[in-house]
Design a protein that fits this description.
Elements (H helix, E strand, L loop, with lengths): L1 E10 L8 E16 L2 E8 L12 H13 L5 E8 L9 H16 L6 H12 L5 H6 L2 E6 L5 E6 L6 E7 L5 H6 L7 H20 L5 H4 L6 H4 L6 H10 L4 E4 L6 E5 L3 H14 L4 E6 L7 E4 L2
Parallel strand pairs: 3-4
Antiparallel strand pairs: 1-2, 1-11, 2-4, 2-5, 5-6, 7-9, 7-10, 8-9
Helix pairs in contact: 1-2, 2-3, 9-10
Length: 301
Amino acid sequence: MIRVQVPATTANMGPGFDCLGMALQLYNIVEMQQINSGLQIEVHGEGSRDIARNEKNIVYQAAMRLFEQAGKVPEGLKIKLTNNIPIARGLGSSAAAIIGGLIAANTLVGGNLSSKEILALATALEGHPDNVAPALLGGIVVSVPLVDGDIKYMKINPPPGLKAIMAIPDFFVMTKRAREVLPQQVSLQDTVFNLGRLALLLTALSQGDFSMLSTAMEDRIHQPYRSNLVPGLKKVLAAARLAGARGVCISGAGPSLLALADSNFESIAQAMRDTFKQNGVHSRSLILEPGPIGATTLELK
């Protein structure tokens, strides 16, 4: 049996639409083994009522993609999922499923595919690398897919003292819906706005300069268009800033909201929950350390 631990991720981090993400110390566990025939899927924890237990399961689909590429499709498969990452909330649950399935399958067939090849497969399955790259590699990763399917990436180690406060509303926003509200084109002015802030964000994170995060995490390409999908979004982000957050944004496609901070963690979490409640939204919060290490594998007997 193969056991894979995969971290949650937060993508975009404001201006880094579809190209930037950070791993978080919240993990899903994928256990996989070959059996004589059929498919057995067991799900525990987050999403246990909603996650498919048949061929539609994302972990299974990712595993089969790798088996087919490796030319070693098993007669049967048993999968056990222990999930701590909330699903469809902007914390990379689908990326964790894809990476977990790919790595477990790769280990089962002898580990023939490299991390680079797994990242390319994961990006093809997910559609963009912003979550799958940090889920695989850990840390803060900026990644760029090329036309030939290759992925160019650079990893930044999370600066000491930084924590992520996640405010997680009690409703779903599917990524497909969050993409449908985006414009097909953006202005030159908004493009320049984001380019400057992304450059500032990467530099600030590399140097551990938290004073720049408030400006660096601003965005005009996706966040303004998604604000109507999350009631009270602007007020919650403002409350987090007032409580001491260094920078704030939507986490991935939402609806979870991310605040980065180096102090006042509990106060920020409380302020975000209270402001959501004032806007008719029940939420929970998590205070998470960045995850410097990505998916890890343990072979069990």
